[in-house]
């Protein structure tokens, strides 16, 4: 006999089975995708790359304060508010953080033709960690109640490293004469 | 207790499959790699023989008690097999990754809670306490195994850890059997014992198990593909890296002194 309790049981069982099968299928398809495209899919990699104004990035990165070993006491440097505005505030920072991992994946993608690109991928991974570290400091400053612009030093360093990363990826694609170069130049 | 022709046929097929599987595990030297799985199969051989004897010479109650005792042993051994497979996948070098260990513990606790809730829900028609415990226990065991396998697949995929061929085959068999077992045990929990529909579900579960056992016999008999060797350049790179790490370590120790 079908009681209310048994109806509840079947409802719960249905949800349980749907979740188990759903999760199982998702990971199965993910693994299959990984087997078919061990280096990722070009279109998806490009889709993950969110747009940032690269002229503004270049301006921030070219600022004397972002140059290593530069004596900034005698030259004019950008104001923290300008850096903050040029990057597009917190949204721009988050995009930059996400793009860092895409840049690493873009170099990893090259390994299918040039295994020696592994060294560049590892270098970019280290750079990405450094960007993450600077952004972490910046977010901690914002959390403590001070305006994020107060941590302009971290922001400028993060932008400089990120900008350098984008140039390295473009240079690699250019030197290796890879087919996606034009798309990449548009995206970066 | 009288055994029907179909039950006897399933019993004989099950015993043969288990003996063959045990033979494969021992002769192909898998027993040392999968001790829990080998123990589970050996326990199933013993289970078939003892339950047959009790069914022929014992009372219905004695049969149920023996069946219950073996079901508990089976649950414990199946969970041990799951742990054994998890060890093969998540700590092939003998050390569990810290983040995986914590995640795995959470997975086990959550799976236990969900499986327990699922097993408590159905309200079976009149049944003996032992019968009810058995049906709920089987449902609990199948649900738990399903959850653990799916969780392990998800973890390994996230952590990029490969499933070696034989580990994957054992897991596939157990996972499939647990999934079918979940459906048949759900039916067992709301149906009256000794009815045609109840028996049909039992036969379905037994057929699935026989199918899985045959799959294991074939797959474990076949040798696993040999792992690819590292190219010479990669070996040289690893050697250099090892030397560098040793050198850095010596430098660090000297600094500490």
Entry summary:
The complex is a heterodimer of chains A (188) and B (257). By secondary structure, chain A is an all-alpha fold.
Task: Explain what the structure shows.
- The complex is a heterodimer of chains A (188) and B (257).
- By secondary structure, chain A is mainly alpha-helical.
- Chain A is built from 8 helices and no strands.
- The longest helix of chain A has 33 residues, at 4-36.
- The mean pLDDT of chain A is 82.
- Chain B has 257 residues and is mainly α.
- Chain B has one domain (5-224).
- Chain B is 81% helix and 0% strand.
- Chain B has 8 helices and no strands.
- The longest helix of chain B has 31 residues, at 60-90.
- Chains A and B meet through helix 1 of A and helix 4, helix 5 and helix 6 of B.
User: What is the helical fraction of chain A, as a range of percent?
Assistant: over 70%
Oligomer state equals heterodimer
Cα shape of chain B: elongated
The domain count of chain A comes to 2
Order of helices and strands of chain A: HHHHHHHH
Alpha-carbon distance between the termini of chain A? 66 Å
Determine the fraction of residues in helical runs of chain B and give it as a percent range: over 70%
Spell out the helices and strands of chain B N to C.
Answer: HHHHHHHH
The number of distinct helices of chain A, counting runs of at least 4 residues, comes to 8
Radius of gyration of chain A: 23 Å
Describe the largest sheet of chain A.
none
- N-end to C-end Cα span of chain B: 78 Å
Low-pLDDT windows of residues of chain B:
none
DSSP strand (E) fraction of chain A? under 5%
Number of strands of chain A: 0
Beta-strand percentage of chain B? under 5%
Helical/strand content category of chain B = mainly alpha
Biggest sheet layout of chain B: none
Q: What structural class should be given to the helix and strand makeup of chain A?
A: mainly alpha
Rough outline of chain A: flat
Number of domains of chain B: 1
């Amino acid at each position: 006999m079908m009681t209310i309790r048994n109806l509840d049981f079947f409802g719960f069982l249905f949800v349980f089975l749907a979740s188990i099968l759903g999760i199982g299928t998702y990971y199965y398809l993910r693994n299959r995708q990984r087997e078919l495209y061990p280096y990722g899919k070009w279109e998806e990699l490009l889709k993950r790359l969110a747009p940032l104004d690269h002229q503004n990035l270049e301006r921030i990165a070219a600022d004397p304060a972002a140059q290593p070993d530069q004596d900034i006491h005698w030259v004019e440097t950008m104001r923290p508010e300008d850096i903050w505005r040029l990057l597009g505030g917190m949204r721009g920072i988050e995009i930059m953080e996400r793009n860092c991992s895409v840049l690493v994946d873009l170099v990893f993608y090259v390994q299918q033709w040039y295994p020696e690109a592994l060294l560049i991928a590892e270098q970019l991974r280290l750079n990405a960690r450094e960007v993450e570290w600077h952004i972490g400091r910046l977010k901690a400053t914002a959390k403590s109640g001070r305006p994020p612009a107060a941590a302009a030093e971290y922001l400028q360093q993060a932008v400089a490293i990120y900008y350098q990363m984008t140039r390295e990826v473009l240079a690699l694609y250019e030197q290796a004469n890879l087919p996606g170069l034009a798309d990449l130049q548009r995206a970066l | 207790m009288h055994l029907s022709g179909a039950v006897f046929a399933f019993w004989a097929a099950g015993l043969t499959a288990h003996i063959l599987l045990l033979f494969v595990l021992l002769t192909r030297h898998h027993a040392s790699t999968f001790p829990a799985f080998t123990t589970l199969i050996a326990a199933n051989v013993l289970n078939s023989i003892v339950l047959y004897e009790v069914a022929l010479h014992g009372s219905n109650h004695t049969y149920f008690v023996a069946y219950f005792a073996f079901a508990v042993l089976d649950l414990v051994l199946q969970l041990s097999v799951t742990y054994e497979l998890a060890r093969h996948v998540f700590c092939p070098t003998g050390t569990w990754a810290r983040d995986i260990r914590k995640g795995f513990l959470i997975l086990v606790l959550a799976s236990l809670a969900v499986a327990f809730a699922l097993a408590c829900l159905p309200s079976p028609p009149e049944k003996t306490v032992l019968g009810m415990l058995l049906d709920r226990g089987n449902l609990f065991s199948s649900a738990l195994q399903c959850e653990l396998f799916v969780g392990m697949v998800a973890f390994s995929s996230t952590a990029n850890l490969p499933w070696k061929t034989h580990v994957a085959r054992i897991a596939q068999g157990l996972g499939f059997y647990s999934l079918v077992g979940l459906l048949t045990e759900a039916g067992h929990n709301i149906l009256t014992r000794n009815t045609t529909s109840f028996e049909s579900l039992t036969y379905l579960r037994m057929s699935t198990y026989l199918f899985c056992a045959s799959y294991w016999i074939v797959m474990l008999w076949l040798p696993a593909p040999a792992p690819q060797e590292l190219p010479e350049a990669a070996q040289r790179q690893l050697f250099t890296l090892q030397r560098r790490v040793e050198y850095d370590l010596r430098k660090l120790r000297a600094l500490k002194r």
